[in-house]
Amino acid sequence: MMFFRSFAFAAALFGALALTGAVAHAATYGLAVGIDEYPDGDLAGAVADAEAIADALQNAGAAQVELLTNHEADSQAVEAAWQKLLAEARYGDTIVFTFAGKGDLYAGELGESGPRFRLGDLDALPRQVVLDWARTAEEKGVKLIFVGDASFSGGLERTYPADLVQLRQSGEGQAEPPAPGSRPENNFSRAVFAYGAPDGKGVPELRIGDAPRGGLSWAFVQALTGAAEEDSDGLLSDHELSVYLPLAVGAMTEGQQEVQVLPRRSSPVTFFPAPQSGNKSEVAVPKLRLAVVDGEAAVVGDFPDVEIVDDPADAELIWSVADETLTHRIGGVVASGIDSEKLGNALEKWSALNWLVARSAHAPVPIDLVSGAGRLPEGERAQIEILPGRSPMLTLFDLGPAGDIQPILPENAEAAQKPETRRHIHQMFQVAPGPDGAQHRIVIFSDKPLTGLHAALKEMAESGSSDGLLAALQEALPPDAKAQIGILPIYTGPSGAPAGE
Fold first, then answer.
1. What is the pLDDT of residues 201-238, one digit of tens each?
2. Nearest one of 4, 2, 1 to 487, comparing CA atoms
3. Most confident option among 10-19, 112-121, 246-255, 270-279
4. Counts of helices then strands in the chain (DSSP H, E)
5. Bridging pattern class, strands 288-293 and 306-309
6. Residue from 495, 341, 451 nearest 403 by CA
7. Spatial CB neighbours of 236, under 8 Å, sequence gap ≥ 6
8. Contact indicator for 331, 254 with CB cutoff of 8 Å
9. Closest to 350 in 3D by CA, of 457, 410, 439
């Protein structure tokens, strides 16, 4: 299983393109479909996904946007909306077609089988039909961005609390996943297809902010508002989507969701102008939500950045007082041996991670955990790759399972003043004996030395307390700071079959 892998091919091939008159004056059209209401169990965030994408397209100046939700999004309405937009579009224009909802694998008669997107009339839109529509658009010279925020079968890479997480797929009409091989998407020259996961892997609904959402849809909205802009040409390209979407969604899901963007081209296809986000706005992050089970919440103590919730389904972290384990709702077990005395450090870590994940969505670092998203047993070799950032100063540090801090780079105060050479960093290390759980390697490229943060990290490492970590990060990286952030979650311990499979 590859983790954040799609960036590697595209990132090395970015090329600056001029804003030609054809792109500047081409029109954009949108069709956003979102369905929460299903007879086999409702979703909670798909309609919100479609509405957010429609709003983002309108704000970006789209010529026409069609929004279809729940029962109004039946097969006839979806096809009629598509045909209407295709008739309006001219050579060089772009249609953005997004789906948020459930998928399934269908085994029908006469060989009609394969992945489908479930619609609001108990019918479905086969992925093959989407490809047929894309081919018609391509023959007309119309570009297409298709975003399919659904999955068709399978689960996540690691064991997680499956009873608390809704996957965006149906258990009905299941068939065997398509055999691996050449993907038909690779034959397109004007279209890009972003899928929530490869065939056979699940797409979870997340809590983003205070509401359920789909990670891919949320990340695509950020891309439309400029977060994916990488080469400063003012255009959104398929290469930028191939880099940004897997990184943003991987950070939000502890590496459990692997977005797939196809095809992979040597030369980018540009779609329409996109602003540059530039990290200029304050990152609004709600408090870290913690549920306490098998014990009293009163033992948690007072943490201003933590909110205690009663229902584990509403929490990001679940602390079992009796078992002394800390579980992430999507990531799985992240720490063991966490009693009331050790809980403070762990909560400081996850409050800081909460902020880092949100901040990284503005400008992620192209990173890859080559060894995969599964749990690595003791003695296993882990392999990570970090591509050069846009800024010269590099900061690296680890956050251990229990919140312990280990600074890595820069090595000392003198090294902190020297720009890091713009090189591809490749590291291998062996998983050492120790407490199992989630270790997070944090990568920050900044335009200025982060001397204050380096000093704070060193002091925390020596004292064994991570108290003040979030405040130190916020002080070092104010809203106007030019910075990219990468988060590599490395899970250790005995591997097991993913929950829900």
1. 999 999 988 889 999 999 999 999 999 987 777 889 99
2. 4
3. 246-255
4. 11, 25
5. parallel
6. 341
7. 223, 224, 228, 229, 270, 271, 272, 273, 274
8. yes
9. 439
Neighbours of 13 (CB within 10 A): 13
Burial 36-65 (b: 16+ CB within 10 A, else e): bebeeeebebbbbbbbbbbebbeebebebb
Round to whole Å and give the CA distance between 481 and 462. Answer: 28
Please state whether beta strands 113-118 and 381-386 pair in parallel, antiparallel, or not at all (unpaired). Answer: unpaired
| Residue 376 tokens, joined | 């690595």
Q: Quickly state the pLDDT bin for 2 (edges 50, 70, 90).
A: very low
Tokens of 19: 């804003």
Cβ-count burial of 87 within 10 angstroms (0-12 exposed, 13-18 middle, 19+ buried)? exposed
Q: Which tokens is 209 given?
A: 């902010």
Tell me the CA distances in angstroms from 306 to 352, 374, 469, one per residue in order: 11, 28, 14
* Cβ(240)–Cβ(276) below 8 Å: no
Give the chain's length.
501
Whole-number Å distance between alpha carbons of 451 and 297: 38
Cα 143 to chain center, whole Å? 24
Q: Reply yes or no on whether the pLDDT at 99 is more than 60.
A: yes
CB contact set of 377 (below 8 Å; sequence gap of 6+): 431, 492, 493, 494, 495
Structure tokens at 26: 């081409």
Structure tokens at 18: 């001029």
Does the pLDDT of residue 115 top 70, yes or no?
yes
Q: What domains does the chain contain, in order, with CATH numbers? A: 6-273 (3.40.50.1460), 288-345 (no CATH), 361-492 (2.60.40)
Q: How far is CA 456 from CA 164, 401, 467, 483, in A?
A: 37, 19, 10, 18
Cα separation, 312 vs 301, in Å, equals: 18
CA distance 440 to 413: 23
| pTM for the model | 0.91
CA 351 to CA 469: how far, in whole Å?
A: 9
Q: pLDDT tens across 304-357, in order?
A: 899 999 999 999 999 999 999 999 999 999 999 999 999 999 999 999 999 999
- pLDDT one-digit tens code per residue, 415-427: 878 887 667 888 8
User: 447-482: per-residue pLDDT in tens?
Assistant: 999 999 999 999 999 999 999 999 999 999 998 899
- CA-to-CA distance for 421 and 418, rounded, in angstroms? 9
Rounded-to-integer distance, Cα 277 and Cα 290, Å: 31
Peptide bond into 478 cis (omega under 30): no
Q: What are phi and psi of 344, to 5 degrees?
A: -55, -50
